[in-house]
Amino acid sequence: MGIPSDEIPQADVITDVIRTVISVSQGAESFQDIASAINKVERQGRYYRKAAEIIGLIQTPTRNHSVLTSLGDEFMRTGPTLTNPLLIQGVLQARIFQRLLPFLELHSDAGVSRSEIEDFIHTVADISTVTMIPRRFSSVVSWLEDLHVIERRGERFFLSIPVVNNSVGIVSFEDVDEPLLPRTTDLQEYRTLELRNSSAREAVITYQNAAALERADNAHRRLVNLVASRIKISGSIPRFNQIIDLAARHNNEDFIFEMKSITDGNSKSQVRRALSQLYEYKYLQNLPNSNLVLVLERPLPSATHWMIDYLEQERNINVIWDGDDRLYGTDRSRNSLRFLGLE
């Protein structure tokens, strides 16, 4: 579960990564072409090509022949600049940055030192020699500083949550085996999650397919965005993967959200489905102390209103619902989920 060494950028200057993307858009195909276009030696041409691949802006489908990805096309169309939010989105979809983000989030108050970041990279990546780590640190940190995702205060580095939230709608974790809210820097935590997902692969695939269908629904997307916007306002970072609608860490507490549309006829089955999903997500993500939240498109009808008390009192699941873009909940939910500003 360690990140392969070649998935960690070796290109220190992110503006030159942008120049790499521009050069490919203008016809540069080989790493030699790229090196010439950005005034680097050929070895650096390979490094910068790989860096642009890592963040999803170019791809090399055939030997030494690079082209733009769809994200790269959109990046060029909307302006290939350091301030384009698509650049941060691409960076935060790379595995090393997806692991670094929650690590920085865990230490958002005190920040982290250079040695702590280097130790973290050494822990979560398959880097053969220790001498390579400072070079990888240099690239990773310089990118995040230039993008203002982190800021340096003295000898420590701090995550800038507003920059992340302003640039990325909801942070997407593409790999379902990747922890959304890791609690340690121990690689064993990642291995545990991978093992659990592997053992439950059939169920995971079923959830992936169901989630894809639900996310195609406008009402479902609106509900996700409504809760995500409240999470952002609270100063936390919303995230999701291929099965979990939303997750967030707020005041060092973890929250997993499942959104459900309901009708008078299917409210009971939808609630029961959400109940099993939330508990399975909690297990699969290895978050035994997480807070589970069911978010409904509208209030439960009178025939199944009793299920709110059942969920909250017997299953320790908070229930909230939408009411014309205003989130409502019981006294318990309002108290437990103050950061969402429930009514």
Describe the protein in words.
With about 350 residues, the protein is α/β, with parallel strands linked by helices. It has two domains: about 1-165, Arc Repressor Mutant, subunit A, CATH 1.10.10; about 185-340, Trna Endonuclease, Chain: A, domain 1. About 50% of the residues lie in helices and about 15% in strands. It contains 15 helices and 14 strands. It has helices at about 15-25, 30-35, 40-55, 70-80, 85-90, 95-105, 115-125, 135-145, 160-165, 185-200, 200-215, 220-235, 265-285, 305-315, 330-335; strands spanning about 5, 60, 65-70, 110-115, 125, 150-155, 155-160, 170, 240, 245-250, 255-260, 290-295, 315-320, 325-330. A hairpin with a 2-residue loop joins β6 (about 150-155) and β7 (about 155-160). α1 (about 15-25) crosses α2 (about 30-35) and α6 (about 95-105) crosses α7. The protein starts with a strand and ends in a 7-residue tail after the last helix.
Shape: elongated
The total count of strands amounts to 14
**CATH class category name of the largest domain:** Mainly Alpha
Supply the number of structural domains.
Answer: 2
Tell me the span between the first and last alpha carbons: 43 Å
> Stretches where pLDDT falls below 50 for ≥5 residues?
none
- Average pLDDT, to the nearest integer? 93
Name of the CATH architecture of the largest domain: Orthogonal Bundle
